[in-house]
Amino acid sequence: MDGIVLLKDDHKTVEKLFKQFEKAGDTAHTEKRKIADQVIQELTTHTWIEEKIFYPAAREAAPDTKDHVLESVEEHHVVLWMLSELKNLDAADERFDAKMTVLIENVRHHVEEEEKEWFPEVRKAMGRNRLTELGEQMEEAKKKAPNDPLAVPSADE
Known about the structure:
0% strand; single chain
């Protein structure tokens, strides 16, 4: 599978979870906890493969996108920190929904920038064969991704 298609599929999976969370009632703490746990796992894995495999390759193929990569890594840092806080926060805590809402807003912004501005440039620079190769590497790397958001190293580590 093409690496960009794989990342977009991840984006769709997370967006579905966000919508489920938003539709859950104010007192649906158990349901919201389950959804949040899925979001944490999905985003931790997604960030892991982006930073370990996709970003370095994209930066090499499309050096002009360096600033986008650096901004994305910083956005990941914020998201991973929020995920680590959500992981240990009781869903009945008054800050839980607010924290999830801010997380959702941050991730949606990040996804929109990637998909509309950055992915087209990377696709043009890399071509189908390289993107397919990266997709296979990322699919394999998902199996090794950490469960703890704070265990995801930044791209420069």
